[in-house]
Amino acid sequence: MIFKGIGRTFSTENERxxxxxxxxxxxxxxxxxxxxxxxxxxxxxxxxxxxxIGLISGEIVGADRSVELPDDGWSSVSGRTENLGRIYGxxxxxxxxxxxxxxxxxxxxxEILYRR
Length: 116
What we know:
Layout: E1 2-11, H1 17-32, E2 37-42, E3 48-55, E4 65-68, E5 75-80, H2 84-92, E6 99-104, E7 109-115
């Protein structure tokens, strides 16, 4: 599978990525609607993360990144956005990830697809 979207590199120092990736989501949600988007996190280093936001269906205008992803081996967790910290705590207790795909809806729901 190919994930296409608009990509940025975010600092993970002092967990700043939560605020900056959130602002990135807000920016693109205003244009496309939150429920139409999905975000891909990958390429973690000690101080950064690569993050791409694309459309769930179709190709986002201005796409500047294409990431080839495996078709199988993904796990999925759904929940409430306000519990995202706890959801990720459960996911990461079994080790680091190679990829994560986040989807959010306008009613506060979220789905996390991940692969180790």
